[in-house]
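Task: sequence in, structure out. Protein: Large ribosomal subunit protein uL30.
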Amino acid sequence: MANATVKVTLVKSLNGRLANHKACVKGLGLRRIGHTVEVQDTPENRGMINKAYYLLRVEG
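Result:
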C-alpha cells in the first residue's frame, strides 16, 4: 500500500455548505463540479473525504 491512491470527484455544489466542509474539499484539490483528482490514500485525506462525503464520489 505504498503508493495507494483514490480518485475523488466533486458531484455537488459547495454553495451554502459548512465552512469546514468547503475547506476539506479545497484541501483535496477539487475546484468545480465534475472535477476529479487522484489523492494519496492517507488517514488525513480519508478524514477530509469522510467529512464532506455527501459532496463527493470516491473510486478505488
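The chain has a mean pLDDT of 95.
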